[in-house]
Amino acid sequence: MLEKPILRVLAGEDIWPPPLWLMRQAGRYLPEYRAIKDSSGGFIARCMNPDLATEITLQPIRRFGMDAAILFSDILILPWALGQDVAFKDGVGPILAPIRSAAGIDALSRARVADATAPVLETITRLTKALPAACTLIGFCGSPFTVACYMVEGGGSRDFAETRSMAYTDPALFARLMDVLTTATTDYLSAQIQAGAEAVMLFDTWAGMLSPLQFRQHVIAPTAAIVAALNARHPGVPVIGFPRLAGMYAGMYAERTGVDCVALDTGTDPARAAAAVPDSVAVQGNLDPIALIAGGSAMRAEISSILDALRGRPHIFNLGHGILPQTPPEHVADLVQCVRSR
Ligand code: CP3
Fold it and tell me: How many domains does the chain divide into?
């Protein structure tokens, strides 16, 4: 099993050149995804159809041969499975019926999740059979704080003021939601591992909006609880954490949460983060998705600077945030070639 380059790096080995995959590597920048999207109903329907979700997960692997495949799904599938109304509107993004009361939180049902997500687990099991031998299958969830942001706000937001206000003004109510999410996330990731996910990632897209005190309460504490529970249930299955916009805390985050890898966002200096993160903990990242759209010599200079900064320590090459829909697929091919030819 540890033949797979990504798993070797997650176990603390450094490999040169580093293995790579890209956040949001499946999706709208690929014509073969758009062809399926136009004929397959809504986004949730695609996520819940094992034929389509398996095919969409494999599309970037076939085209570019990344070292890992990430399950085609979304962080908002968990609130949907818990019973919240969730819809994805083209050109708008996710829309949720906001939850801001104890009654709303208590109406969420952890008992629903196993049934509702059964097709996702089926997709994972099919992928374990369909992927190339060296390709690692990554499962994922949003982290409790980031998922709570969408659940309370009812969608995306510039500053998630409703959510962050709730955390300050009604900490007991916010803790009630965070507790439901921490347990449900642990169980759902555990089910993904049982179905065949070889590593799991926690996306904490909005971690960097929090004050230092709130960051400890709503990012470090739940992440540490999830990692400890997963390590106990599935020893040796690595966890990647992505505390986006919080690269200044990379060292503290690695030490206190117990993750096996810290994913760095675009604005984080990889050399400084690497110096702060223990040598045995991998780092992942962190090419600017806009540099990938630009391509050419500007992109290659950015790639070189990241590779040079992280050479000699466990590193998985990736972006600093997800691929954008306007990305030319040829630039992704150039990126893969550029990293592999080092
Ligand atoms: O490589 C992959 O495609 C893996 C699957 C994946 C998706 N979303 C598919 C998706 C993953 C890992 C995510 C994570 C996710 N989703 C995050 C965390 C990472 C990040 O990007 O910050 C967040 C915050 C979300 C919530 C979300 N989902 C938003 C805000 C949107 C709308 C914006 C957009 O790009 O449309 C989505 C929809 C979504 N998730 C799409 C895809 C491919 C686009 C919908 C479609 O193609 O029909």
Answer: 1
